[in-house]
Amino acid sequence: MAMSICVGATPSISSLASEMWGGINRARYVSGVNASPRCASTTKQGVPLQVASALKDLQVVQDRKVKSELVRIGVLGASGYTGSEIVRLLATHPAFAVTVMTADRKAGQSLASVFPHLITQDLPNMVAVKDADFSEVDAIFCCLPHGTTQEIIASLPRSLKVVDLSADFRLKDIAQYEKWYNGAHRAPELQEEAVYGLTELHRDEVRSARLVANPGCYPTTIQLPLVPLLQAGLISKDGIIIDAKSGVSGAGRSAKEANLYTEIAEGMKSYGITNHRHVPEIEQGLTQAVGSQVTISFTPHLIPMSRGMQSTIYMQMVNGVTVDDLRAHLKSKFEDEEFVVVLPKGVVPCTAHVRGSNYCLLNVFEDRIPGRAIVVSVIDNLVKGASGQALQNMNLMMGWPETSGLLQQPMFP
């Protein structure tokens, strides 16, 4: 639909509404799950909310005169998993085009030589960061490892919008960064400017930001359900236990003995017990939600699959609150969100049902211990946990519909 707007005559909004509504009825499409609560909700004019949201996006596209609004994108660290995932997602974006890609160790090579699945894309060769021409760029996705990002972003032209996928600007307290990442922060003035980009919770700040710190994957699965519940006073800030599991791609693409096939296959292992670097990021978000210190128990695990992430979260409800209250609050909070879906009662989220997509599926269950509840939250760690959320943020920063380039449905099987 979006591509037809770019290359041909623009259809009327009314004709698009008819076509989309009919298509939804035929396909019985409901945001990646086999249920209809979101389509059941309508505007005052009786238009399904999903259609109304899509039409609003189309109107924005028309108003901005797509043909003259090409956004030139630079991808720093294009030879890594998150960099290549950015390029994959941008293949369906109506206005973002990659004009610069960097990869110091792969400088001079094509991206297709590193990632053959992207051979159909018309892309520039990768160059070293020092040789990149940023006069040909409007916005940057920085996909470099933590610790290498600060000085590079500080050296970029101030005119560029930047989404940083590393951890370098996520922690507001510089001392916390130095403690957990074992080194001094080399761009503290930028840390003051950076906006934390958990899109559904910080949309307004992201929209006006120049530099966005893209959240970590584990913190995304955890904060999306916990922040609304804590803000509403429905659960206790004490006694939160998080058992999280990630596919191997979360460890990055560099060669590591611990990530070899024979080390990972046919088993599961815990890592970062009591000292995982996402702990301060999670606690920062939860503490901001309640206005006082929140301390969690968090243990991540590596499981033998390429992508996918699940966080199983155990919590104490406040007196008089039920699991149905928790679920109703989350459903209300995310009812109009495209990418966060509260599943029907009793349906268990599964990583296989978000694979390759920007969706987060979650649900609430009653624990056998009275007064306690369990939330299960799943994402694709490379999409909603990294590159997809980065694109979601960049869309907002550049004034484009938030869902642009991100409506790919999950891949199954």
From TrEMBL:
InterPro entries: AGPR, AGPR_AS, AGPR_dimerisation_dom, AGPR_type-1, NAD(P)-bd_dom_sf, Semialdehyde_DH_NAD-bd. One of its GO terms (biological process) is L-arginine biosynthetic process. Residues 72-209 form the Semialdehyde dehydrogenase NAD-binding domain. Keywords: Amino-acid biosynthesis, Arginine biosynthesis, NADP, Oxidoreductase. The active site is at C217. It is an enzyme of class 1 (oxidoreductase). The keyword Ribosomal protein does not apply. It catalyses: N-acetyl-L-glutamate 5-semialdehyde + phosphate + NADP(+) = N-acetyl-L-glutamyl 5-phosphate + NADPH + H(+). Its EC number is 1.2.1.38. Gene3D superfamilies: Dihydrodipicolinate Reductase, domain 2, NAD(P)-binding Rossmann-like Domain. It holds the Pfam family Semialdhyde_dhC_1. It comes from the Eukaryota. Pathway: Amino-acid biosynthesis; L-arginine biosynthesis; N(2)-acetyl-L-ornithine from L-glutamate: step 3/4. GO terms for molecular function: N-acetyl-gamma-glutamyl-phosphate reductase activity; NAD binding; NADP+ binding. Belongs to the NAGSA dehydrogenase family. Type 1 subfamily. This is Probable N-acetyl-gamma-glutamyl-phosphate reductase, chloroplastic.
